[in-house]
Specification:
By secondary structure, this protein is mostly helical. It contains 17 helices and no strands.
Length: 376
């Protein structure tokens, strides 16, 4: 099985020149994606109390959910056959067929014991929804408007970054609890009542823009601290260890940094009385925007780049060059970097490479998790 999985990964990472259209690579890859998606959807349906976010549970009960699942299964089956027909190397097609059949088998088996842990859930459905939505949105954009035209979807380190995506999604419950802990404590003190009432009465669009600015301001200083304080940098170095930039690279972040960054950044948003809909809208925006600024999109956005952070702007934050060190900390508004002296946006230029000089951070999720705690 291990050898087969290695062959599947090797096939997925086939250079573009060796997998022209009609070679069966595309049908095999999409078929495998369909099979894995169907398998995860079936697991969510079979064990909803353990694998589903309560906020997403109503989606599983909608009339369209099972027809979509059947469509994914049938599509995966057809694409698997097509790949095995077209491609000399049958690995991808066989892997796609295996996952489709496994999903079908798991779906037919009776559930004798419902997996359940009181009050605990893992966001498997959140991972499916998040990864599919972002992938469907950004993979075509990165193909059409690529900065690095030679970079493929399954580039170096894609498995690490996908695993980061999976972990942060599965542990969404504990991350949410810890993220909200500081603001819940402040709110429990009953302070800022008049401020909260005034903020809540502002026009909705003003609230949304205020949320974006205040969270970016808080994020700016927390982010800058992670760069300037040596023991914090070792946590943040994990994020900067990515040697390729695309929509999924932003998921590479140490678990403890996620907690600190999100909790401190989110505090103004949750304690100042902003309308719930403005907060939820911002959360959706920041999820998409975080992927966007890391993406392999090379389009120039002209004057907009002076107002809003673009991929080129944030790529300079990840650049290997000396001039890219400790610049461009803002996530939304370059104005913050201008105000605090960390703005860097050379006209018409991109970094030549990404990562950390000397690449001191090891490969692999668990090695990177332990990296900040090691001496030296």
């Amino acid at each position: 099985m291990a050898n087969f999985l290695r062959r599947v990964v090797s096939e997925l990472e086939t250079p573009r020149a060796k997998r022209p259209f009609g070679s069966g690579w595309l049908s095999g890859s999409i078929g495998l994606l369909a099979g894995v998606t169907a398998l995860l959807m079936v697991i969510v349906l079979r064990y909803p109390s353990l694998t589903s976010m309560p906020d997403l549970a109503p989606i599983h009960q909608m009339l369209f959910f099972k027809p979509v699942l059947y469509f994914v299964l049938i599509s995966g089956y057809i694409l698997a056959i097509l790949s095995m027909t077209l491609r000399r190397q049958k690995t991808l097609g066989a892997a796609a067929m295996f996952t489709v059949l496994l999903a079908s088998l798991v779906g037919m088996l009776p559930v004798r014991h419902q997996l359940h842990i009181d009050g605990v859930f893992f966001g498997l459905d959140f991972f499916i929804l998040n990864a599919l939505f972002m992938g469907v949105l950004f993979v075509p954009l990165e193909r059409l408007f690529a900065r690095n035209k030679d970079q493929t979807v399954f580039r170096d380190e894609w498995r690490e970054d996908l695993f980061y995506y999976l972990v942060s999604s599965l542990l969404v419950q504990i991350l949410t609890y810890l993220t909200l802990a500081p603001s819940n404590f402040v709110n429990s003190q009953g302070a800022l009542g008049s401020v909260r009432a005034w903020v809540h009465g502002l026009p909705w669009l003003v609230q949304l823009l205020a949320v974006m600015f205040l969270t970016d301001l808080a994020q700016y200083w927390v982010h800058r601290a992670f760069h300037r304080i040596p023991w914090l940098w070792k946590f943040h170095a994990v994020h900067h260890s990515a040697k390729s930039m695309d929509w999924i690279a932003g998921a590479r972040m140490h678990f403890l940094e996620i907690i600190v960054l999100r909790s401190l950044t989110a505090t103004p948003m949750f304690v100042l009385g902003f309308d719930e809909s403005a907060i939820q809208t911002y959360i959706l925006i920041v999820y998409v925007y975080s992927s966007f600024i890391h993406s392999n999109i090379g389009t120039s956005f002209g004057p907009v780049e002076k107002v809003l952070v673009s991929p080129r702007y944030h790529h300079w934050h990840h650049g290997l060059e000396k001039e890219a060190i400790d610049v461009n900390f803002a996530i939304h508004f370059p104005l913050l970097d201008r105000l605090f002296g960390t703005h860097h946006m050379p006209e018409g230029r991109w970094p030549n490479g990404y990562g950390i000089h000397g690449h001191p951070v090891p490969n692999g999720y668990w090695q990177q998790f332990l990296y900040p705690f090691r001496r030296g």
